[in-house]
Amino acid sequence: MDVPVIVVGAGPTGLFLAAELRLGGVDVLVLDALDRPSGQSRGLGFTARATELFDMRGLLPRFGTVRTDTRGHFGGIPLDYGVLDGGHFGARGIPQARTEAVLADRATELGAEIRRGWKAVGLVNGPDGAEVEAETPAGRRRLRCRFLVGCDGGHSFVRGAAGIAFPGTAATREMFLADVAGAAGGGIRPRPIGERLPGGMVMSAPLADGVDRVIVCERGTPPRRRDRPVTFDEVAAAWRRLTGEDIGGGTAHWVSSFGDATHQAVAYRKDSVLLAGDAAHTHLPAGGQGLSVGVQDAANLGWKLAATVHGWAPPGLLDTYHAERHPVGARLLANTRAQGLLYLGGEETLPLRAVFAELMELPEAGRHLAGRVSGLDIRYGTFPDGGHPLLGRRLPPADLVGEDGPTTTFAQLRTGRGVLLDLAADPDVRDAARPWADRVRVVTAAPREAPGGPLDGTAALLVRPDGHVAWAAPGGGPPVALPAALRRWFGRAAR
């Protein structure tokens, strides 16, 4: 094999996956068709769960000041994300180009190789490996790998070449996006969660240096087959028809169009090919979830792929990637379609909006919707009633006091390895995990939290590299002891 893993696509998902693989000690090559990053930023931040993942890997300081806000929305209806423990609407005002730059730097620092201007044009997939053919500045090249991961977007070449079906619904409308400087006498009235108007919906938010992001959805505009990109004149004309405001005197830094098509791959793995991010699921960009769910795909897949390459993965570990992430993708598509109806529907949706607004005032309904959009409610696996409430869920943020002083739960996951958090200084727990010391770090630390906190009453936690809890004591939980849980997720003990 030329390289154990090839990743096609140097967007946020592919770059984060490359970094995760390098943390797992696996050589990885990233191919991207563009000669250089586009510099364009459809996304302007990431959700609460993606923020936590970046924190777990020590990346948040690289973004500079990270601004979060508990105020958000669901389909344009205000929603308080602070109803969740550690909940917020996500990191705001961070252009996707900045996120890609941070993740590219991280991946290359760890030893990943990124080859730009390499376009995948051929693929042979088999149970024991894959071969990809790429057009490069120096001509065509063939590369072999044990696994190939398609992170190449909604029009994924990898997905199509692997023969993985991508069913769903076609786009029903066309929307415009533009970053505009100097419009409307120096600024556009902010509409951060969108404004419904008789003819459609508009959204606007100030960016840096006098630039405004505008999104226009004019009702009754079906998607068009375009032989050339959308122009700023089209955007300005649609904005004027809906708002009566003239932004045509501004200068567009870039302009784009998009739709509300919704599709999901039927399988996230076929032989040696896997899919992640938009290659696995596409949807209306509601709530900034696309980039964030792709990063979560990568976090789930990276350590499992590394374990498989190294040969210590227990049977079926790699198959849990599809089993765990495909349902998450299906829920993503459901919530973005629902938001599309609330956001973009006509007068016939007003009763639905009124009912939703009432329901969202109920604490339980608010927690449910906030959990779905933020990604904080994801739970992998099923557990009997009465089990520990953290089983299958994310490790909550909490302050700890360890042997070396103050620390946090997230800081224990910097290395990308599994972690056994011994919160009660129990020597039996540490002894049980010792045979897995090459794959699982044992950390003895006590929580610094008031009674009733997320770790209250918990003696120990086994945490996977992606930050999800695989075993907890005490609390009943599934009928499995710690060694069995270690074997389930980290393979046989070392001799």
TrEMBL record:
Keywords: FAD, Flavoprotein, Monooxygenase, Oxidoreductase. Its cofactor is FAD. Gene3D superfamilies: 3.30.70.2450, 3.40.30.120, FAD/NAD(P)-binding domain (3.50.50.60). GO terms for molecular function: FAD binding; oxidoreductase activity, acting on paired donors, with incorporation or reduction of molecular oxygen, NAD(P)H as one donor, and incorporation of one atom of oxygen. The keyword Manganese does not apply. Residues 2-335 form the FAD-binding domain. The keyword rRNA-binding does not apply. SUPFAM superfamilies: FAD/NAD(P)-binding domain. This is Monooxygenase.
